[in-house]
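User: Hi! I'm working on a homework problem where we have to compare a predicted structure to a textbook description. Could you give me the structure for the chain below?
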Amino acid sequence: MRKMMISGVTALALLTGGIVGFGGVGSSVEAAQATTKFKDVPATHWASSAINSAVEQGYFKGYADGTFKPSSPVTKAEMASILGRLSDQPDASAQEQNNFTDIPEWAKSGVSIAIAKGFISPSNYKGKLDAQGALQRGEMATWLTQGLTVVDPEYKQALSDVTNTVVPAKEYFTGKLASAQKNAVAVALGTGLMSVANDKTFGVDRTTTRAEVAVLIARYAAVAKTKPADFQGLNELRAVGLTGTNLSIIAPKYQKAGPEKFSESYDYSKVTGDFAKVRNQELVTVTNYANLKVKNWIIVNPYVKETERSIYYPVFVDEKDRLLRGAYYSFTEFDINIKNSMNQLQGGSLINSPTINTLTSPNTAAFRNYGAKHINDLLGPKGIFTVKNPNYWSQGLLHFDNTLNPRVNLMLKDGTIYNVVPY
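Assistant: Happy to help. Predicted structure tokens:
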């Protein structure tokens, strides 16, 4: 029966240019010989190397007319079959049954294997996979990150940790990233498995092309061999999800101020260096124009080389931007409840801090391109806020120079004090 299935799928591939049979990856002489120059995949094509590798390993075949059709969409059935053939992927400990009723005969075995390997959870569907439908990027992110949780349980923890994170994709900032796909998109971005497009969107509803799949196969193999903790971007996303800030990742020298930083009469038991304890909690403000909460606090070091940058650098900072005297960028998302009326300057006086600064938002092209909320979007004539509950991102500076007040100090109305200083 299995030999007949292999023959049927191979025949289909020869006719359609789809996936080849279910033999061992890279073991087929025919597949190796198929690594030729496709007419529509020049050496300059962004995915040419990955495409040739995927063909050589037997994931794809070209078409009879000598083309690969790199921009053609991949169906869910095709992708499931490809994922099922990843020989290094272990089986999931908890096995789900293939109860889909719309799988074509040639793909049933491949879909079942992909389920067994943990890529697809039938329990997330209602009996139908829409197997012949084009696979969209949001669903692709879900499948791939579910697969990672089988390889290493820490990826399962990572998927949980990013539930409340800030996702560096335009859909997140514009409120168009569905909660059902947010965690998968975050982990896919944090590991470099997937990325945003030139328009800064992740493109959850965009179809996945043959060229993209060829690249993703190679990326998945690399990510699956890497521990989650080895990805700085993922570490940042997890930290923000759990605590509201990436401070400990980007600026670990900032730590809870020791008792020596306070007078002997001070109640040091109220001091914390855990930002999670002040996140989304009402703060004591200098002025009384509004109630104020901090939702998220992002730090960006502008001095490191591109490969070491914060995953949030492209969201907030333009390439040309530089700071003086060793300061880092500080970006804060505020949730404000105005009591009566408040203008921008009055809003800026709520907290007297160069770091947690309520007065201005980033004026970079990057920030605008990602569609994050700017304070100017909420102001009317004479700089007066037009809404009672403004939510926006602001820009400040995290200093290390002791002459520039590097201490970050926030107090909750219950007396809890968040106080960190550079050591």
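For your comparison, note the following. Strands lie at 254-256, 271-272, 290-300, 328-338, 391-398, 408-411, 417-422. The mean pLDDT is 90. Good luck with the assignment!
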